[in-house]
Amino acid sequence: MPRAVREQQMMDAAVQTFGQRGYRAASMDEIAELAGVSKPLVYLYLNSKEELFTACIRREAKALVEAVRAGAEPGLPADRQLWSGLRAFFTHTAEHPDGWAVLHRQARTHGEPFADEVTAMRDEIVAFVTELIGAAAREAHHDPALPDRDVSGLAQALVGAAESLAGWANETPGVSAKEAAATLMNFSWAGLENLMNGRPWQPPGPARGGSGR
């Protein structure tokens, strides 16, 4: 069997084991047995447990980013692009629950260098969503008044909500990727549309005689 194919088998087994057992509890013996190879072969191909876990994070992160970018069809209105990107995100996380568990739970809870790998992936997705929100602002009016910092903040909030919702959807029977994406669109798009059309929500002013705090 070609080395690349054998490595992918080991990686598949590692993602499943790490996703279901956790990084600390997972053993190289379990991974080797699931992959149908000897433990020395796993070490020969993929070195240490730490390096194997890092390789799993990178593979799953790359696949998720590619799925989101491929899902957001260019040329569509901004809301349709965001909708299709969200559907692609939730479809991918639903179809790869172990990979999502590795990224969303395991990598983040075990510190550097694992958390740094996930941060890099998240930054790429946030940058992509920022582009979509900026495009929506330009569609709404030719001279958007929405500051870059506000666009970036909205993208951060949207991605954070998507991450939490994906975890919930994967653990709740009967929730489809389409339903999860629709939930987030209903939560976010009405507010984004109002903001980009010059109707932002404003906090109430200070009560009469109050300090304003």
Structure explained in plain terms:
The protein contains 9 helices and no strands. The chain has 213 residues and is an all-alpha fold. Helix 4 crosses helix 6 (97-109), helix 7 (114-140) packs across helix 8 (148-171) and helix 8 (148-171) runs antiparallel to helix 9. The longest helix has 27 residues, at 114-140. The chain is elongated. Mean pLDDT is 85; it is low at 209-213.
What is the topology?
Layout: H1 3-21, H2 28-35, H3 39-46, H4 49-71, H5 78-95, H6 97-109, H7 114-140, H8 148-171, H9 177-196
Helix pairs in contact: 1-2, 1-4, 1-6, 2-3, 4-5, 4-6, 4-7, 5-7, 5-8, 5-9, 6-7, 7-8, 8-9
Defining traits:
213 residues, mainly alpha, disordered C terminus, 75% helix
SSE arrangement, N to C: HHHHHHHHH
Beta-strand share of residues: under 5%
Mean pLDDT across every amino acid position: 85
Per DSSP E runs of 2 or more residues, the count of β-strands stands at 0
Shape: elongated
From the N-terminal CA to the C-terminal CA, the straight-line distance is 68 Å
Radius of gyration: 21 Å
**Structural class of the secondary structure composition?**
mainly alpha
Main sheet: strands, sense, barrel = none
Helix tally equals: 9
Helix content bin: over 70%
Low-confidence stretches: 209-213
